[in-house]
Every structure is written in C-alpha cells, then in structure tokens.
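In response to reviewer comment 3 from the previous cycle, which asked for concrete evidence that the modeling workflow produces usable outputs, we include below a single protein chain processed end to end. The sequence was submitted unchanged, and the resulting structure tokens are shown without manual editing.
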Amino acid sequence: MSSRICANLWSQIDPPDNPMGHVTNGVHVPTFLSPHWYDLFDRHLGYGWEQRLTEPGCWDGIYAIPDQQFWAVRQGLKSQLFHLLRDRLAEQHARNHGSAAHLDRVLRLADPDNPRALTIGFARRFATYKRATLLFDNLQWLRDIVCNAQRPVIFVFAGKAHPADQPGQELIRRIAEVAKMPEFESRILLVEGYDLRLARRMVSGVDVWLNNPIHPLEASGTSGIKAAMNGVINLSVLDGWWGEGYDGENGWAIKPVTDPDPARRDREEARALYEILQDSVVPLYYDVAPHGLSPGWVAKAKRSMVSLLPRFNTERMLGEYIERYYRPAAGQWHRHAQAGFAPTRDLARWKKRVREHWSGVRVRRIDHSPARIRFGESLRFELAVGIDGLEPADLRVELLFGCPAGAGAAPAQQHLEMHRERRIEGDEQLYSIELQPDMCGRIGYRFRVYPHHPLLTHPYEMGMMLWL
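The workflow returned the following structure tokens.
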C-alpha cells in the first residue's frame, strides 16, 4: 500500500518494485496483555514465554489450555469491563439528571455478576473514514440481530473526535441518538470520557472487536491487535493489519467493495456486516454446550491468539526495522564514509551524468524469437541499447520472464540479467540472453533498462526505467 501511495515519486517503476517499503505495526505484549493470562501461560507455554514472543511454536500451548479455564479468564475480563461501564454510565446519567429506573434499564444486560451477553466493542478516534455509524445503515435489520431476549447483543462505543472535526462529532451524535431509541436501550452503549483506562478494559473485555474503515485508508489499526492478544475475536474490513493477519479461521472479514459510489459501497459493506453478525457471530457465541460455553467460540478465540500474537508484536516489528532498514543503512554509511566520503562524491557525479544522458537512452529488439516452442527447446533474445554517452556498466538490462498474472494475483516472473556482447554501431550495444524455459503454457516476457551503480541504496532509486 505504501508503495502505491508514493508511486508518483518513481513514475517509471512498477509500485511493487519502487524503493518505498513498509513494516507492519506491532503491539508491546507486556503492556497490553492482561495479567489475568499470565498464570495460564506460565503453566501451558512454559516459563520464559515472554522471551519467545516471535516463536509460533511457543503459542501452540494455548490450544492445550482447558476451555473452561480459558473461558473463565475471558468472562473475568468482561466482568471488569462491565464494572467500569456501569461506573462511567452512572456518572453520565447523574450529570444529565436521569432517573435511577432508566439507568437500571440501560445497564440491565451489562451485568458484572453474569456477563453472558455477547459484547462487541468499537473504540477509537471518530474520524469519518472509520465509519463508526456503518452499523446503523439498516436499523430494522440491526433490531432483528440484537433484540433477541435469548441471544442478547451489546455494542459498546467509545472515542473522541477532534474539536475541529465537525463530521466526526456528528458521528458521535448519531450514535447517541440511536442509543436512546427504546429498542436499543441497554444494547447500544455510548461511553463518554474515553481514556487509557477505558481503552485497556475494552480491548481485553469485549468478545468481538469491530473495525469497518473505508478501504484502503486504515493505516494499521493497533487496537484490534491489542484485542486479539487478549482472546477477543476481530470482525474487520480487510484493511490495515487485518488484511495481513486474517487467515479465514481467526476471525471474520468484510471484503472491501470496489464501487465508485460511496453510498453503494457503504450499503454493500453494511450488508456484509449484518450477514456476518446474523449468520456467524451471534449463532457461534450462543451455541453453548451443557458445560456453559461455546466450544466453537473458544476454538476461534484460541486460533486468533495463536496466529496473531507471534506476528503482531513489537519484537517482530523492531526486528524487521533492523534487518530491512537500520542494518542496511548502517552498512551504506560505512561504505560511503571511506576515504573521506570519496565514494559519496563519485556517486553524486555518476547520478548527475546519468540524469543528463538518460533522455537519450533507447532500446530496440533485434531478434526474431518464435511465438511457440516445444518444451525443452531454447530461446534467444537480443536487444540493441543506445547508451547516449553513458558507459555500458552504467546500465542494467533485464528480461522479466514468466507466467502472466491471474485474476487478482501478481505475475510469477523471473528477473534475468541480459549480458552485453559487443558494440554494434555508434553508441548501440548488443545485449543477449539464451534460456530454456522450465514451464509450459502461456508465457509472457518484457525487457527493461535502468541505471545501475554498486553504491545505490536501492537498485531503482533513480526512478528511471525504459520498458520494451
């Protein structure tokens, strides 16, 4: 995504190849993992699990935790959340001079002594692209989902909008309006005074973490990571970290709708949200066995923790920063700093010369390779490259060869360097390659020429590339 956002900086380079990379965010596990999990983890993961955060095998021990013990921790965390919600909502109610009877009606499902109601959390900054009110697209459908006495559902909303963000504040007003409707009292709770304490309770205490931003505007979404590490199951648009973390078994995903009309897009994604809630989330949660819990729900919560904890933590994140960026940058520093930074001055002169001559570089094909060959036969490709005053060593000529891309998939290509044979005439140089394809079926190929220097930090950082 980052490479596509910045593609205009290297307009001749395909976005997947340009120098813009990324490291997905991670969360500091000791800070955001509830202490209620520590005893269970010590027993089933082994002492010292805190030093093995990035080892997937370490987390497999979560599967061995008895379902009753796992569920007891989850219910204990939800009970803590309900205690805090009751305190916060009682303060709000008293400030607004509400009656005690009305407060009891609002809080009747958020019972800390019996936290059985399915609880779904949405807590974050109320920016418009996060679509906090997508849930209210079809209120009648929402009533059918949440207003079932045998399968109650609570939605807890919390967050703040910037003082200058009027559209964001309108989202909060809309949530408050719906929460006051008689059929949604006790089922939609809007909690004021969003702070770190409430955030910590919500990401560990709800059953489902809801996130439905407009794709592809979600930068990461670390609140969902904090929830996942505490056994909360994510229900999110496939954007940000969830686009990488979702594996089909560790939560639920709303596939982004590509429609130029925002209203139609929101309507279709709201429909998907309702269908997931109605057909998957609520039935699974309330598919309770005789021992008082849903085995399927616990299995999905365990799968969420096992699959996501070793990947979306700060230890993995920092390791990727070091290996992808900091260590190579340090190596470049040592290479450039030699001999009083003489290599840096040489590279600057080389870049200046390439920029002056690049517009004169040209390429043409001179071979006549057949359109079809038998398996095992060889192909020879030849190009004439006019270098316009540059040296042959200043350029790299490559053949991109392989199967064309399928629907929604990147092409499977080999990047093969073509070798200079000789000068043809004038400034034209002959480059060639001979290969024996090891694949059958339809095969595509392209040629490209780009500046090359051993001191470049990224092979395509000049942003110059000719295609044929």
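Residues 23-319 form a domain with the Rossmann fold fold (CATH 3.40.50.2000). We consider this sufficient to address the reviewer's concern, and the full set will be provided in the supplementary archive.
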